[in-house]
Amino acid sequence: MGRMRRVLLAGVAFFAFAGIAAAADLPARMPVKAPPVAPLAWNWTGFYIGGYFGNSLAQSSATNAYRPGEVHVNDMGIAAGATVGYNFQFAPSWLIGIEGDFGILGTNREFRDFNDTSITVAVKTDWYGTLRGRFGYVTGPSLLYVTGGGAVAKIRETFGGDTGVLGVEETTTRWGWTVGAGIETKLARGWSTTAEYLYIDFGDNSFVGNPYGAAATSTFSNKAHVLKTGLNYKFGEGPFDLTALFASPLSSPARWSGFYAGVNAGLGISNVKVPQVMAPSFNGEENVNGLGFAGGGHIGYNYLAFSNWLVGVEGDFSYLGIDDVHGDWYDTSSGFGTKTDWYGTARVRVGTSTGPAYIYSTGGVAFAKLTNEFAGVTSSATKTGWTLGGGIETALDDRWSARVEYLYMDFGTNEVTSFGDVAQFQNRIQVVRGGLTYSFNTPTPVVARY
């Protein structure tokens, strides 16, 4: 639990750090009387390098030919590494490019199987890399893009046993594919910050082991979700050129103040764990992976507190379509499942504006309709928990904006009793979503002072 919190807080803290960096890089902009200034022409074409930091969530499943069921394995870790790429801007607001990155995923999960504690199941990812194309739309100092390509990782998989039962592990370099999307926004001519989500599928890997003294094939399927924020530098620009983002009404942080409403859509990802600590029959563990569509609406209010800093409140309510049930590896009648119908949050947002973009951290209360299943018995409840996250929002004009946002939600435990055994489901959900927002505020036009 302590490790998970450190990982989560590290990711949220980096959103806050990106905001502080943005505020430090930009000079204060005060309204002055002056003739209108032509907007700056933002050039995204060229080579760039950077670094990133964030969270990773690994979701794996394992089967063995000896039994018909499966074991789920999930873990949350720190993702960090370096990026290099090239962009070409054309037509004039479209962009294509290529990007490579290499880093750590930091996931390492090991436990004894719920129904047979002589079996240890584990998955560890050391490093990973991707090579992707990017295609996006340039709004001036911000870029909205989709991305996809190939992926590679070093993964160690274990399916083995105790004394007298030979265990097996295999370490391989795995190849797969990845898709994702993100927002990148300029902090200055040469510097930019990114918020990006990648879904990575490393496919299946099979190897022959003998968990019960006879040869039997184990097969692992490994997937990863990576949410990262980064800092990039594009060559050919002055590294200390802190020219304000652009001379138009959008260069005022006041553009982000006031009431707003919008819609959002993305993915809900579960990393539910079931330690069987209250069962007289079993004392192993099981995990429940899940993935589903998340979509709904949000409404909120921002207040420009001082300089470029804003504080605000936001509420949202959305459909959440996670629905996964699987039979335990050793005994398929001992099924485990998690289903979500909807979720909502009431949160505080704190962040800084570069003018055309708003970089923020957020946290508050979360609600969800959750159903957990154990050995044919289900338990449904409306659960209350807490949430932390962050995001980047970029202006499309003086009313509309687009965002990428990450939320981690912890709904505590839910107990399900079947034949005297009590399964404790630790329900944790992550949501990665994009959104479109309309501002009801009409800021007074200003001209930036350089």
Task: Characterise the protein shown here.
The protein is mostly beta strands and 450 residues long. It has one domain (2-439): Porin, CATH 2.40.160.20. The chain has one helix at 2-25, and strands at 46-64, 67-90, 94-112, 120-138, 142-160, 169-186, 191-209, 216-234, 258-275, 285-306, 309-320, 323-327, 335-353, 357-374, 377-395, 400-418, 421-439. Strands 1-2-3-4-5-6-7-8 form an eight-stranded antiparallel barrel. An eight-stranded antiparallel β-barrel has the order 9-10-11-13-14-15-16-17. Residues 12-39, 244-250 and 446-450 have low confidence and may be disordered.
Please give the structural blueprint.
Blueprint: H1 2-25, E1 46-64, E2 67-90, E3 94-112, E4 120-138, E5 142-160, E6 169-186, E7 191-209, E8 216-234, E9 258-275, E10 285-306, E11 309-320, E12 323-327, E13 335-353, E14 357-374, E15 377-395, E16 400-418, E17 421-439
Antiparallel strand pairs: 1-2, 1-8, 2-3, 3-4, 4-5, 5-6, 6-7, 7-8, 9-10, 9-17, 10-11, 11-13, 12-13, 13-14, 14-15, 15-16, 16-17
InterPro entries: Beta-barrel_OMP (IPR027385), OMP-like (IPR051692), OMP/PagP_B-barrel (IPR011250)
Keywords: Cell outer membrane, Membrane, Signal
Family: Belongs to the Omp25/RopB family.
Question: What are its keywords?
Answer:
Porin, 450 residues, eight-stranded antiparallel barrel, 1 helix, disordered C terminus, eight-stranded antiparallel β-barrel, single chain, mainly beta
